Amino acid sequence: MQLPLPRGPITARLFDALTRPPHAFEPAVPDSPRPALDDDDLQLALFACYELHYRGFDEVDDRWEWDPSLLRLRQALELRFERGLAEAVPRPPAVPPAQLRRALTELVAAADRDGPQLSAFLQHRAGLEQFREFVVHRSVYHLKEADPHTWAIPRLHGRAKAALVEIQSDEYGCGRLERMHAELFRATMRGLDLDDSYGAYLDRIPAVTLAIGNAMSLFGLHRRHRGALLGHLAAFEMTSSLPNLRYSRGLRRLGGDGTARRFYDEHVQADAVHEQIALNDMCGSFAADHPALTGDVLYGAACALALDRRFAEHVLARWQEGDTSLREAGLAVGLP
Protein backbone atom coordinates (compact mmCIF):
# COMPACT_ATOMS: atom_id res chain seq x y z
CA MET A 1 0.00 0.00 0.00
CA GLN A 2 1.20 3.49 -0.83
CA LEU A 3 0.95 6.39 1.58
CA PRO A 4 -2.31 8.28 0.96
CA LEU A 5 -2.58 11.96 0.14
CA PRO A 6 -2.29 14.28 3.15
CA ARG A 7 -5.48 15.86 4.48
CA GLY A 8 -4.07 18.61 6.66
CA PRO A 9 -1.04 19.78 8.64
CA ILE A 10 -0.69 16.63 10.74
CA THR A 11 -0.65 14.17 7.85
CA ALA A 12 1.46 16.50 5.70
CA ARG A 13 4.22 16.57 8.30
CA LEU A 14 3.83 12.91 9.22
CA PHE A 15 3.97 11.61 5.65
CA ASP A 16 6.94 13.81 4.86
CA ALA A 17 8.80 12.27 7.79
CA LEU A 18 7.78 8.72 6.93
CA THR A 19 9.17 8.92 3.40
CA ARG A 20 12.66 9.44 4.88
CA PRO A 21 14.74 7.12 7.07
CA PRO A 22 13.72 7.12 10.75
CA HIS A 23 14.87 10.25 12.50
CA ALA A 24 13.95 12.38 15.48
CA PHE A 25 11.24 14.91 14.76
CA GLU A 26 8.96 16.94 16.97
CA PRO A 27 5.38 16.01 16.19
CA ALA A 28 2.62 18.52 16.68
CA VAL A 29 -1.13 17.99 16.91
CA PRO A 30 -2.68 21.42 16.45
CA ASP A 31 -6.09 22.19 17.87
CA SER A 32 -8.96 21.76 15.47
CA PRO A 33 -12.55 23.02 15.65
CA ARG A 34 -13.73 19.73 14.16
CA PRO A 35 -14.82 16.92 16.46
CA ALA A 36 -12.12 14.25 16.63
CA LEU A 37 -14.36 11.58 15.11
CA ASP A 38 -14.98 13.76 12.03
CA ASP A 39 -11.47 15.18 11.65
CA ASP A 40 -10.03 13.73 8.44
CA ASP A 41 -6.49 14.88 9.22
CA LEU A 42 -6.51 13.35 12.70
CA GLN A 43 -8.15 10.07 11.71
CA LEU A 44 -5.90 9.52 8.69
CA ALA A 45 -2.77 10.29 10.74
CA LEU A 46 -3.87 7.83 13.40
CA PHE A 47 -4.72 5.23 10.76
CA ALA A 48 -1.24 5.59 9.25
CA CYS A 49 0.44 5.22 12.65
CA TYR A 50 -1.56 2.08 13.34
CA GLU A 51 -0.99 0.66 9.86
CA LEU A 52 2.72 0.39 10.63
CA HIS A 53 1.72 -2.42 13.03
CA TYR A 54 -0.13 -4.24 10.24
CA ARG A 55 1.15 -4.39 6.65
CA GLY A 56 2.78 -0.98 6.52
CA PHE A 57 3.42 1.18 3.47
CA ASP A 58 5.66 0.39 0.53
CA GLU A 59 7.77 3.52 0.81
CA VAL A 60 8.03 3.57 4.63
CA ASP A 61 10.96 2.00 6.47
CA ASP A 62 9.70 -0.71 8.85
CA ARG A 63 11.89 0.73 11.61
CA TRP A 64 9.39 3.59 11.95
CA GLU A 65 6.99 1.19 13.71
CA TRP A 66 8.62 1.67 17.13
CA ASP A 67 10.35 4.99 16.56
CA PRO A 68 10.04 7.18 19.72
CA SER A 69 9.08 10.30 17.74
CA LEU A 70 6.27 8.44 16.00
CA LEU A 71 5.04 6.93 19.25
CA ARG A 72 4.89 10.40 20.82
CA LEU A 73 2.79 11.61 17.91
CA ARG A 74 0.53 8.57 18.13
CA GLN A 75 0.03 9.15 21.83
CA ALA A 76 -1.06 12.75 21.21
CA LEU A 77 -3.43 11.62 18.47
CA GLU A 78 -4.85 8.90 20.69
CA LEU A 79 -5.53 11.36 23.49
CA ARG A 80 -7.69 13.44 21.16
CA PHE A 81 -9.36 10.34 19.77
CA GLU A 82 -10.15 8.94 23.20
CA ARG A 83 -11.60 12.27 24.29
CA GLY A 84 -13.72 12.30 21.16
CA LEU A 85 -14.99 8.80 21.88
CA ALA A 86 -15.79 9.73 25.46
CA GLU A 87 -17.79 12.76 24.29
CA ALA A 88 -19.72 10.78 21.66
CA VAL A 89 -20.28 7.50 23.52
CA PRO A 90 -21.82 7.52 27.02
CA ARG A 91 -20.06 4.99 29.20
CA PRO A 92 -22.49 2.27 30.35
CA PRO A 93 -22.42 1.54 34.08
CA ALA A 94 -20.47 -1.48 35.23
CA VAL A 95 -22.50 -4.56 36.17
CA PRO A 96 -21.75 -7.72 38.17
CA PRO A 97 -20.18 -10.42 35.95
CA ALA A 98 -23.34 -12.54 36.09
CA GLN A 99 -25.32 -9.67 34.52
CA LEU A 100 -22.91 -8.90 31.69
CA ARG A 101 -24.62 -11.08 29.09
CA ARG A 102 -27.96 -9.39 29.74
CA ALA A 103 -26.40 -5.92 29.69
CA LEU A 104 -24.69 -6.59 26.34
CA THR A 105 -27.89 -7.99 24.87
CA GLU A 106 -29.89 -4.95 25.97
CA LEU A 107 -27.24 -2.59 24.60
CA VAL A 108 -27.34 -4.24 21.19
CA ALA A 109 -31.14 -4.42 21.15
CA ALA A 110 -31.43 -0.69 21.89
CA ALA A 111 -28.98 0.16 19.10
CA ASP A 112 -30.88 -2.01 16.64
CA ARG A 113 -34.22 -0.51 17.64
CA ASP A 114 -33.15 3.12 17.46
CA GLY A 115 -30.48 3.13 14.75
CA PRO A 116 -30.76 3.80 11.00
CA GLN A 117 -31.41 0.69 8.93
CA LEU A 118 -28.63 0.87 6.36
CA SER A 119 -28.78 -2.88 5.81
CA ALA A 120 -32.50 -2.71 4.96
CA PHE A 121 -31.81 0.09 2.47
CA LEU A 122 -29.08 -1.98 0.82
CA GLN A 123 -31.37 -4.99 0.64
CA HIS A 124 -34.37 -3.26 -0.92
CA ARG A 125 -33.50 0.11 -2.41
CA ALA A 126 -29.80 0.68 -3.07
CA GLY A 127 -28.57 0.96 -6.62
CA LEU A 128 -25.46 -0.82 -7.82
CA GLU A 129 -23.22 2.22 -7.41
CA GLN A 130 -24.45 2.73 -3.86
CA PHE A 131 -23.73 -0.89 -3.00
CA ARG A 132 -20.24 -0.53 -4.48
CA GLU A 133 -19.68 2.56 -2.34
CA PHE A 134 -20.70 0.60 0.74
CA VAL A 135 -18.21 -2.15 -0.12
CA VAL A 136 -15.44 0.43 -0.62
CA HIS A 137 -16.10 1.83 2.87
CA ARG A 138 -16.02 -1.63 4.42
CA SER A 139 -12.84 -2.63 2.59
CA VAL A 140 -10.75 -0.66 5.09
CA TYR A 141 -11.55 -3.29 7.71
CA HIS A 142 -12.64 -6.38 5.80
CA LEU A 143 -9.39 -6.69 3.84
CA LYS A 144 -7.66 -7.25 7.18
CA GLU A 145 -10.65 -8.77 8.91
CA ALA A 146 -10.03 -10.11 12.42
CA ASP A 147 -6.49 -8.71 12.70
CA PRO A 148 -7.27 -5.92 15.24
CA HIS A 149 -9.10 -8.29 17.59
CA THR A 150 -6.29 -10.85 17.38
CA TRP A 151 -4.12 -8.50 19.45
CA ALA A 152 -6.14 -9.65 22.47
CA ILE A 153 -5.09 -13.31 22.28
CA PRO A 154 -1.75 -13.00 24.13
CA ARG A 155 -3.41 -10.76 26.71
CA LEU A 156 -5.95 -13.37 27.81
CA HIS A 157 -5.79 -16.72 29.53
CA GLY A 158 -8.01 -19.69 30.18
CA ARG A 159 -11.50 -20.05 28.77
CA ALA A 160 -11.71 -16.47 27.43
CA LYS A 161 -8.53 -16.98 25.42
CA ALA A 162 -9.71 -20.32 24.03
CA ALA A 163 -13.04 -18.75 23.01
CA LEU A 164 -11.36 -15.88 21.19
CA VAL A 165 -9.04 -18.29 19.37
CA GLU A 166 -12.07 -20.31 18.28
CA ILE A 167 -13.73 -17.22 16.81
CA GLN A 168 -10.55 -15.97 15.17
CA SER A 169 -9.79 -19.37 13.67
CA ASP A 170 -13.07 -19.19 11.75
CA GLU A 171 -12.29 -15.63 10.66
CA TYR A 172 -8.99 -16.88 9.21
CA GLY A 173 -10.67 -19.75 7.39
CA CYS A 174 -9.38 -22.44 9.77
CA GLY A 175 -6.07 -22.26 7.95
CA ARG A 176 -7.48 -22.46 4.42
CA LEU A 177 -6.67 -19.43 2.28
CA GLU A 178 -9.80 -19.61 0.15
CA ARG A 179 -12.00 -19.55 3.27
CA MET A 180 -10.35 -16.59 4.98
CA HIS A 181 -12.94 -13.86 5.39
CA ALA A 182 -10.57 -11.26 3.96
CA GLU A 183 -10.18 -13.40 0.84
CA LEU A 184 -13.95 -13.86 0.56
CA PHE A 185 -14.34 -10.08 0.70
CA ARG A 186 -11.78 -9.67 -2.06
CA ALA A 187 -14.00 -11.91 -4.20
CA THR A 188 -16.95 -9.64 -3.41
CA MET A 189 -14.94 -6.64 -4.55
CA ARG A 190 -13.90 -8.34 -7.77
CA GLY A 191 -17.51 -9.31 -8.40
CA LEU A 192 -18.40 -5.63 -8.23
CA ASP A 193 -15.54 -4.61 -10.55
CA LEU A 194 -13.65 -2.96 -7.69
CA ASP A 195 -9.93 -2.98 -7.05
CA ASP A 196 -9.37 -5.65 -4.39
CA SER A 197 -5.81 -4.65 -3.52
CA TYR A 198 -5.12 -3.68 0.07
CA GLY A 199 -5.73 0.02 0.70
CA ALA A 200 -6.67 0.82 -2.90
CA TYR A 201 -9.42 3.25 -1.86
CA LEU A 202 -7.84 4.81 1.22
CA ASP A 203 -7.89 8.29 -0.33
CA ARG A 204 -11.66 8.00 -0.75
CA ILE A 205 -12.41 6.90 2.81
CA PRO A 206 -13.81 9.65 5.11
CA ALA A 207 -13.02 10.16 8.79
CA VAL A 208 -16.31 8.60 9.91
CA THR A 209 -15.20 5.28 8.40
CA LEU A 210 -11.56 5.51 9.48
CA ALA A 211 -12.71 6.04 13.06
CA ILE A 212 -14.34 2.59 13.07
CA GLY A 213 -11.05 0.86 12.28
CA ASN A 214 -9.03 3.19 14.49
CA ALA A 215 -11.16 2.28 17.51
CA MET A 216 -10.38 -1.40 16.96
CA SER A 217 -6.65 -0.70 16.70
CA LEU A 218 -6.72 1.60 19.73
CA PHE A 219 -8.35 -1.09 21.84
CA GLY A 220 -6.20 -3.86 20.36
CA LEU A 221 -2.81 -2.23 20.78
CA HIS A 222 -3.24 -1.26 24.44
CA ARG A 223 -3.49 -3.93 27.11
CA ARG A 224 -5.46 -1.55 29.32
CA HIS A 225 -8.23 -1.66 26.71
CA ARG A 226 -8.44 -5.45 26.43
CA GLY A 227 -11.89 -5.49 28.02
CA ALA A 228 -13.14 -2.88 25.57
CA LEU A 229 -11.70 -4.91 22.68
CA LEU A 230 -13.64 -8.00 23.75
CA GLY A 231 -16.84 -5.98 24.11
CA HIS A 232 -16.23 -4.47 20.69
CA LEU A 233 -15.87 -7.92 19.12
CA ALA A 234 -18.95 -9.20 20.93
CA ALA A 235 -21.02 -6.30 19.57
CA PHE A 236 -19.66 -7.01 16.09
CA GLU A 237 -20.72 -10.64 16.27
CA MET A 238 -24.11 -9.87 17.83
CA THR A 239 -25.03 -7.40 15.07
CA SER A 240 -23.73 -9.38 12.11
CA SER A 241 -26.06 -12.20 11.05
CA LEU A 242 -29.21 -10.27 10.04
CA PRO A 243 -27.41 -7.36 8.31
CA ASN A 244 -25.26 -9.79 6.32
CA LEU A 245 -28.37 -11.69 5.26
CA ARG A 246 -29.78 -8.39 4.00
CA TYR A 247 -26.54 -7.51 2.22
CA SER A 248 -26.55 -10.84 0.45
CA ARG A 249 -30.15 -10.44 -0.65
CA GLY A 250 -29.48 -6.91 -1.82
CA LEU A 251 -26.46 -7.98 -3.84
CA ARG A 252 -28.46 -10.83 -5.38
CA ARG A 253 -31.17 -8.33 -6.34
CA LEU A 254 -28.48 -6.29 -8.10
CA GLY A 255 -27.16 -9.29 -10.02
CA GLY A 256 -24.34 -10.46 -7.75
CA ASP A 257 -23.51 -14.13 -8.18
CA GLY A 258 -22.85 -16.71 -5.49
CA THR A 259 -19.13 -16.02 -5.39
CA ALA A 260 -19.68 -12.31 -4.83
CA ARG A 261 -22.25 -13.04 -2.10
CA ARG A 262 -20.32 -15.75 -0.31
CA PHE A 263 -18.67 -13.33 2.12
CA TYR A 264 -22.08 -12.23 3.38
CA ASP A 265 -23.59 -15.71 3.33
CA GLU A 266 -20.68 -17.04 5.37
CA HIS A 267 -21.32 -14.47 8.11
CA VAL A 268 -25.02 -15.26 8.43
CA GLN A 269 -24.36 -18.70 9.91
CA ALA A 270 -20.86 -18.29 11.36
CA ASP A 271 -21.62 -15.16 13.33
CA ALA A 272 -24.77 -16.64 14.84
CA VAL A 273 -22.45 -19.21 16.43
CA HIS A 274 -19.78 -16.63 17.23
CA GLU A 275 -22.36 -14.52 19.05
CA GLN A 276 -22.90 -17.22 21.65
CA ILE A 277 -19.19 -17.94 22.03
CA ALA A 278 -18.44 -14.23 22.42
CA LEU A 279 -21.20 -13.66 24.96
CA ASN A 280 -20.77 -16.71 27.15
CA ASP A 281 -17.29 -18.12 26.80
CA MET A 282 -15.29 -15.03 25.91
CA CYS A 283 -16.90 -12.05 27.64
CA GLY A 284 -18.54 -14.10 30.37
CA SER A 285 -15.31 -15.83 31.34
CA PHE A 286 -13.31 -12.60 31.09
CA ALA A 287 -15.78 -10.85 33.38
CA ALA A 288 -15.64 -13.68 35.90
CA ASP A 289 -11.85 -13.40 35.96
CA HIS A 290 -11.81 -9.58 35.93
CA PRO A 291 -15.05 -8.34 37.57
CA ALA A 292 -13.72 -4.78 37.77
CA LEU A 293 -13.53 -4.60 33.96
CA THR A 294 -17.18 -5.31 33.06
CA GLY A 295 -17.67 -1.59 32.44
CA ASP A 296 -14.81 -1.67 29.93
CA VAL A 297 -16.44 -4.57 28.08
CA LEU A 298 -19.71 -2.65 27.84
CA TYR A 299 -17.93 0.53 26.78
CA GLY A 300 -16.16 -1.30 23.94
CA ALA A 301 -19.50 -2.64 22.74
CA ALA A 302 -21.08 0.81 23.02
CA CYS A 303 -18.26 2.32 20.95
CA ALA A 304 -18.69 -0.30 18.22
CA LEU A 305 -22.44 0.36 18.05
CA ALA A 306 -22.15 4.15 18.18
CA LEU A 307 -19.46 4.36 15.50
CA ASP A 308 -21.42 2.06 13.21
CA ARG A 309 -24.51 4.21 13.74
CA ARG A 310 -22.59 7.37 12.84
CA PHE A 311 -21.31 5.66 9.71
CA ALA A 312 -24.82 4.58 8.67
CA GLU A 313 -26.21 8.07 9.28
CA HIS A 314 -23.44 9.59 7.16
CA VAL A 315 -23.96 7.20 4.26
CA LEU A 316 -27.74 7.43 4.20
CA ALA A 317 -27.72 11.23 4.53
CA ARG A 318 -25.38 11.60 1.56
CA TRP A 319 -27.39 9.20 -0.54
CA GLN A 320 -30.63 10.95 0.29
CA GLU A 321 -29.03 14.15 -1.00
CA GLY A 322 -28.07 12.38 -4.21
CA ASP A 323 -24.38 12.68 -3.34
CA THR A 324 -21.53 10.22 -2.84
CA SER A 325 -20.71 9.05 0.67
CA LEU A 326 -17.02 8.83 -0.23
CA ARG A 327 -14.43 11.58 -0.29
CA GLU A 328 -13.45 13.29 -3.49
CA ALA A 329 -9.70 12.87 -3.22
CA GLY A 330 -7.47 14.69 -5.67
CA LEU A 331 -8.55 13.88 -9.21
CA ALA A 332 -10.31 10.66 -8.19
CA VAL A 333 -13.90 11.57 -8.98
CA GLY A 334 -15.34 8.12 -9.48
CA LEU A 335 -14.77 4.46 -8.86
CA PRO A 336 -13.08 2.36 -11.55
Structure classification: mainly alpha
How far is the first residue's CA from the last residue's CA? 18 Å
Mean residue pLDDT: 95
Low-confidence blocks of residues: 331-336
Per CATH, what is the topology of the largest domain? Heme Oxygenase, Chain A
Number of domains: 2
Named CATH architecture of the largest domain: Up-down Bundle
Shape: globular
How many beta-strand runs?
0
The top-level CATH class of the largest domain is Mainly Alpha
Q: Strand fraction band?
A: under 5%
User: SSE order in H/E notation?
Assistant: HHHHHHHHHHHHHH
Q: C-alpha Rg, in Å?
A: 19 Å
How many individual helices?
Answer: 14
Helix content: 55-70%
Q: Main sheet?
A: none
* CATH homolog superfamily of the largest domain: Heme oxygenase-like
Walk me through this protein's architecture:
The chain has 336 residues and is mainly alpha-helical. The protein has two domains: 80 residues, no CATH class; 224 residues, Up-down Bundle (Heme Oxygenase, Chain A), CATH 1.20.910. It is 62% helix and 0% strand. The longest helix is centred in the C-terminal third of the chain and has 32 residues. The two termini are 18 Å apart. InterPro entries: Haem_Oase-like_multi-hlx. It comes from Planomonospora alba.
Features of this protein?
336 residues, mainly alpha, Heme Oxygenase, Chain A, 0% strand, disordered C terminus, Haem_Oase-like_multi-hlx, Iron-containing redox enzyme family protein
